[in-house]
Design goal:
single chain
């Protein structure tokens, strides 16, 4: 069974948080808040909670039916997740670049989004 759109989004943010190999407490707490407040089934909530326990990667196929504004919002939140622990690792940059491609966000739009996020270097 394919995962729901919201579970895919949570997985994306978890993958960005884990990109440097460590899930910092600030990252984990942000994910916990999201999981608690998201409209998930009990099974989805359980699956999403597992993203806190073990490193996850970006989904292979995701969010193909999401409008451009929503994709930008997903990317913006992923960028914020990358710096919530006040460390922006090279692995997180690589993950964001990969995510940008998966979400079909043009480079100029990505630059605009990233410019609004303190601590995020190009």
């Amino acid at each position: 069974m394919a995962e729901s759109q919201i579970l895919s989004v949570i997985r994306v943010w978890a993958a960005v948080a884990w990109a440097d190999g460590v899930l910092a407490e600030a990252e984990a707490e942000g994910l916990r808040r999201l999981i608690r407040s998201a409209d998930l089934t009990p099974e989805e909530r359980s699956g999403a909670t597992r993203y806190l326990d073990q490193r996850t990667d970006l989904p292979d196929v995701m969010l193909t039916n999401v409008n451009p504004e929503a994709r930008r919002g997903i990317y913006r939140a992923a960028c914020r997740m990358a710096v919530v622990d006040h460390v922006f690792a090279h692995a997180e940059r690589k993950m964001l670049d990969r995510l940008r491609g998966m979400l079909s966000i043009p480079a100029d739009i990505a630059v605009e989004i990233e410019a609004d996020i303190p601590g995020l270097e190009p």
